Amino acid sequence: MSAVEALYVFDSFSPATTPILQHEWRSRPATNAASLYSLYKAQPSPRPSLIYLPTTSPPILLFNIIHNNLLFLSPATSEIEPLLVSEFLHRVVNVLEDYLGSPLLGSKIEANYDIVAQLLNEMCDDGFPFTTEPNALRDVVLPPSLMGKLLGSVTGLPSASIPSSFTPSPTRTLSTIPWRRSNVRHTNNELYVDIIELITATIAPSGRFLSARSSGTIAFNCKLSGIPDLLMTLQAPTNHKQKLGAPPSGGLGFPVFHPCVRLSRWKERPGELSFVPPDGKFVLASYEIDLLPSGNPKSAIQPQLPVSVELKSAIGPQSSEFEARVFISTASLAPTANTLSANPFGPRSSRSPAFGGSSNNPTVEEVSIIFPLPPTVKTLTGTRCSRGEFQHEGRRVTWKIPTTSAFSGTATLRTGVVVKSYGGDESEGEEEAAVDNGEYQDVQTAGTAGVNGGNEEEKAKRERQAKRKMEMAMPRCALVAFSVKGWLASGVKVDSLKVVGGKGLGEGVKPYKGVKYLTKAGDIEVRC
Amino acid sequence: MAANRIRSMFPVAPRKGETFELRTGLNSQFAHERKDAIRNTIAAMTLGKDVSALFPDIIKNMATGDLDQKKLVYLYLMNYAKTHPDLCILAVNTFVQDSEDPNPLIRALAIRTMGCIRVDKIVDYMEEPLRKTLKDESPYVRKTAAICVAKLFDLNPSLCLENGFLTTLQEMIGDSNPMVVANSVTALAEINEAAPETEALAVTPAILKKLLMALNECTEWGRITILTTLAEYKAADVKEAEHICERVVPQFQHVNPSVVLAAVKVVFLHMKVISAELCRQYLRKMAPPLVTLVSSQPEVQYVALRNINLLLQKQPDILTKEMRVFFCKYNDPPYVKLEKLEIMIRIANEKNVDQLLSELKEYALEVDMDFVRRAVRAIGQCAIKIDSATGKCVNVLLELINTKVNYVVQEAIVVIKDIFRKYPGYEGIIPKLCESLDELDEPNARGSLIWVIGEYAEKINNADELLQTFMEGFKDEYTQVQLQLLTAGVKLFLKKPQSQAVVQQILQSATSECDNPDIRDRAYVYWRLLSKDPEVAKSIVLSDKPPITSTIQSLPVGLLEELLGEISTLASVYHKPAATFVGQGSFGADAVQKRAIEEQLQNARENPIQASAAAKGQNMENLLDIDFDGAAPASASTQTPQPGGLESLVIDSPARVASPTSPTSGTGNNLDDLLSLFGTESVAPANGSTNSGVLAGLEGLGLGSQAASQPQLQKKANEDILGLF
Predict the structure, then answer these.
(1) What is the pTM of this model?
(2) pLDDT tens, A212-247?
(3) Partner-chain residue, chosen from B140, B362, B573, that has the shortest CB–CB distance to A527
(4) Structural domain boundaries enclosing A11
(5) Which of A78, A287, B367, B544 is the most exposed place for a label (fewest CB within 10 A)?
(6) Closest chain B residue to the Cα of A434, Cα to Cα
């Protein structure tokens, strides 16, 4: 039966092999934390998230995730569902972040061991993950209270001396809704919706999209008193509708929902999300949209990205240079933005002022291009770029292009490549060994080719090899990163968001609602 | 932080002073000092230090009205209940008291901690509190108590049954609170696994209904348990299976990937019995969640890919429209790339093959050698899988050969050989292949090229010259290349008798200069064959080879079925039964052998033609025995193969997993021919030819290609098993 056996947290920068946290849900495992850590470190990088250690007794499967330099390890000695464990580890990270504040640091865990231990005990009973909803946990475990700290600093007494009636004790009546804690009260009722899309795409040298997907997340930050019942209507632009095909999905591709969403409502009326939200931050739904229409990338209207790259390699006199040209333009985004503004979404369209781009005027930011270099590259010479700055580090060049709010235009980067000397590196050595010298000469002498002919042949061969070597030293692709505020690649938007029912929220209270959109390049690869 | 610093200063043993300080704090007269000391003790415990020495001092702090403090003390107890249960027995009275506390959190903590104390004596104290908490008004307490029953069962099954806890637990599946239901199911599943005879979780129609009801309401972890239970349940009839599928499908939209995969498993397993039309519908519905899993975080991705690989081996057309999702990214780790490649080949069909080919060509030009080779091989697998795409595949391969990148060329030639084995009519490209003759240094590539030359000797004008160039280094070649050279030489001679010189040179060096008996023997057999009657030789050596049908690796059917039942578990990631890689007892050689035998028997049952061919083979073997060393009794052969047979079985089954050329039955004819040949020819073979050597020679003789000799090996194994039973 699947059970999470233990959790160890290490500081991956610290040289010490002792964990900063260890928690065992079942009896003490045979292999201790330190040896697990050294076995983990012994694995070659990149380490898979699931490592099989056959040498321990009994054999161990080691689940691991890294978060902010913290390494989370969980060993398993029996059959278990791997996704369950990795998902559980992620939940632990989320809950700890929720309680201790983001970013999660080793020192924070160390300062709040009592809380962490309580949390781990609640999240998993006898190895069975159970309560992982932050809201439900808040009913049983108190977060490190600001109140206590304040009082402690004022009175000079340690926090423990404050009578417990001061601090809100865990409620005796536990909430009936598993994801929402009971007795939520806020002085300011606010609702924030962030829709964030990550684009994953592969683009052929010609500029044609080989694949393009956008995975969206609808993140919510809900600060409403009582038990509100919300209704959110999403709209996918019409031009996506037919290509998204399935009408039941409501244009959201394939959505997955937080358990609070009433699935039956969504099924009946796609696009309508009806739910009682958890308190605080949570992910309401996420979806996947294929930006290329069904199956046939050729006939499709190509998706428009605000940043495009043209990569030319093996150019220049020695064909030892490559050049990248970047086009940044928000013009292509305008049509989508226009359709958005054509459907004004009422008073809610007010956004938090700190937020730069609006849907009428999307801005491109954080543009950077990464060129991964093959191992044969020794160094780069004569690198120059028309905008921004570049950085050559290890086997990659990162080129950052600053953009002002209304920037659009082109930028170029050109650089020469110096290849490692012959025989100086492994792959060349292999190539040399590949030619069976003895036999090759035999053939040469056996053949009737004259000395001159042989030389020419040699020369041609050498040239060919040199060219090949140069080709092998060229970057094969460029990885593009950017973020656009106020624009969504898929064109999804929030049509309306209403409080339709529930209790606890006063009659006249009009909660403040804010919506923002953000598109980021998740993994965009331009080949050359 | 401070604690950590202190610890790193004294890495070996906890500082004596520290424990002492804590102890002083725990016994302080001030409540706040005590509470801080408890906090610090918990911190030390979480760091992994042994603070069990403080046990008596902690216990003193247990009876307190301060809820926070009480919880912390319980945390301490809980930790040591698992590791030092004997200590915790001291605190039992307080547990019992606290299990009646007005606060549900305290009640739950008490019963949970009691469950963790794994000492027999605790059982007597536990009965009453457990009975009460199971009926508690708070669902939080009930769900904790439910898990506690499983803990108690582990400790003392009979007591658990006598007290009716198991029955209570079963009743709790009908609880009004879904969290309680989920935990009850988890506990029952645990008990059921530990002791199947209790039938703790016998799913009846009534229980099924309750489970399906709870499915939509309980926590994600509860859903996983329920889904796993549903997957193991065998639906009574089609209607029930349909109902289960219908209720489970909405779980595809859960945010937790583990739930999604568990739901896929349930639907996939129950789909077998429902009607074909519905089945197709569900397969369609299965595609989007799988795609979503593939595009999520890397750790989910790999598990998803491995599971998809399994599903595709059973249902190859689930994801044919989603090819693009599997395109490899530059940043993908190598193991993900290889897995994606394998999946892409599995879902390749006439419609998406163009897309796939241009993608594969792209990969073949990358720098990572392993990945490049795999990509080239994939092109070949495509060609063999999809008839209509062969031309395109060959063109791509030729383009790749033109790049002159050593390892690409070599792999391409190996792949082209396979294409020749299935499709005639591409002889036009042979000159192109021969151009890169000098570049080849791997035995596989050299062997493949030689095979091609031999096979199409009549169409290659300078075939004899080409073989001659290989002959120069004959002695230094790998065995595999030497064998190919031998066979190719014979083929050349049979097709072009004028090139006798070459074949003679080959046979000469093989028989006189070679130390390897396999090569020597094969050379002798050929030589004799040729000198006796070239026509007979022709009918053997140049006989039609059975075409290969697939070069895509697949799991054996039995294993696949077993693994499909294990979808979403570790077994499905490693494509091995769980017992082989985890668990206390090692998966013994016996078990491996048993499994292999079962599998072979199964094959024999499913494939009577093959089995009968194998039976013929046995005859032949006996005859050979008599012929070669007439004194040996024929019965000897029925005894000798047994150990050898099993051995070959054990060796054979992994080998087949590694590279299964599909078993074919056409080779029987060749063997018969040979049989008759040796029957008429009663001359004993020249010095030192052992039976095994001749057999090895026969294998190569009949099939001409090293890979193709596998079916025969398999047959031999079959036959041995048939003999055994």
Answers:
(1) 0.78
(2) 888 889 999 998 888 888 999 888 765 444 433 333
(3) B362
(4) 6-144
(5) B544
(6) B441
